[in-house]
């Protein structure tokens, strides 16, 4: 039996049997990202029941609203980001083997406000201007494990998610912080029917002051929209081995 396995493996290396390594790139479709917000329940205008605004930015922000400390009236607000690539599972077969998966996000920039560079975006929940990327802002990316509707989801109805997380490292610049994160371990578990519910992004420590703002799925500049690059193997027999993969022809599928 062992001998047989070895022989099959060697034959596979020597003669391509039709297995293919495919490189695909998926841009987040409009409407497939959003920020959900919360503030302490005693605050006026608590956004915990508000669905995401369809803006050009996905904001991860934990900040004070006033200059007051957290213990005082309504100083603190916090967001998380939901992001999906629904088309991925329209393309990648359920029994494909993921070889690599990389999430690329494009950091927002700055504009000059009274001589200072601030994030050029501030939404209705956060009227304070903040640098686009600030503070000890490591971000956990986990796999969402429940279906939800981006148009109606809120902080209070947010889906559950599962780690261990992929991590966006703390930013090394305040603006235009572009990142590429290895999300293979998350995408590995997104191919079965009903399991591609995307990603949840949240600060590793959800306390102020920190911000991490990326262009969203809705930004007008297509090249800035979130990108998921996946390299995967489709096997003739559904039994590709590591040896086969190295020999297989690569097919590029550009979005
Ligand atoms: C982020 O991930 C780390 C490591 O798994 C964990 O210790 C931390 O609690 C996570 N943060 C949140 C807010 O879930």
Automatic annotation (TrEMBL):
Residues 1-18 form the signal peptide. The keyword Transmembrane does not apply. The keyword Secreted applies. GO terms for cellular component: extracellular region. It is found in: Secreted. Keywords: Secreted, Signal. This is Carbohydrate-binding module family 96 domain-containing protein. InterPro entries: CBM96. Residues 135-229 form the Carbohydrate-binding module family domain.
